[in-house]
Amino acid sequence: MPADTPRLTEQQTERQTERQTEDHKDRTHSQDERLIRELIERWAHAVHTGDLETVLADHADDIVMFDVPPPYEGVRGLDAYRASWPPFFMWQAQGASFAIDSLDVAAGADVAFAHALLRCGTPDELAAHPANRLRLTLGLRKQDGRWTVTHEHHSFPITPTPDATTETAEATAADREAADRRSEAEVRGLHHRWFAHTAAKDLDAMIADIAEDVVAYEQETPLRHTGVADLRTTCKAGLDAAGDAIVHWDVPDLTVAARDDLAVAWGLDRIRLAHPDGSTTEAWSRATRVFTRRGGHWRMIHQHLSVPYDGKTARAALDLTP
Questions:
Q1: pTM of the predicted structure, to 2 decimals
Q2: How would DSSP label each residue in 160-208?
Q3: Tens digits of per-residue pLDDT, 90-125?
Q4: Most exposed: 172, 209, 240, 274, by fewest CB within 10 Å?
């Protein structure tokens, strides 16, 4: 080393190392925040376009979401998270917006959070309440070098009731229609949870949204099933009859009408059994279900299932398809 080259003291060397370490951390955090911002923007765009696989792509298997509609204990697990989105996509197909207004991200070494405000609503809803925004908080963790969303919390603020002297008929009608659409989406979401719970053969989850005083007209005897315990027995018998087959249940033509705390849903139930040997069997029936909202949670209070009667053979027509 030339004689005129200054030597760094041990303290100066430590300070230089600390500065380099801090610079590296700052660059890493900046890069992580950019990656997280891109992840959230990608997710929001996928929600708006109804791209379910991209909506799910960066979410952990143990995701917990506190959503605007029930269940109030949250949507837990990736399967339940997946089942929660189709009703929202159907509502959004009416022309609703889902767009980020503002987004802030803070990232640590392996944990991060973000909060955002989004324009979420139909044109009529946004015209009636132009300042209203969906509030979003996300919790993320880094695993194997990849950021994943482990928690989502969505909410709307409770808007004060307008003064009677200033409330317009247009705003009242828009609020009523918006509330009915939210109720319809909640009841559709309940059905999609049922479909997922049935495939998982989770009997407890299947009856969780059924009222204690439910009255059901099933295809099997007796004429009337009364109470959730009776309906649980019927559901269990159906699962047991499926044996090792996977039970896929859906209602492709599901229609929901909701007003205030009452909703009615109807359509053709499709039950498809996927057997271990690769074969499948399928059956269709007619279904009407009635729901009431109790304590902010929709409960089924009546179910009516049937298959048509063939007058020529005096037998139930079990082989009909749409």
A1: 0.59
A2: PPPPTTT--HHHHHHHHHHHHHHHHHHHHHHHHHHHHHHHTT-HHHHHT
A3: 888 878 899 999 999 999 889 999 999 999 988 888
A4: 240
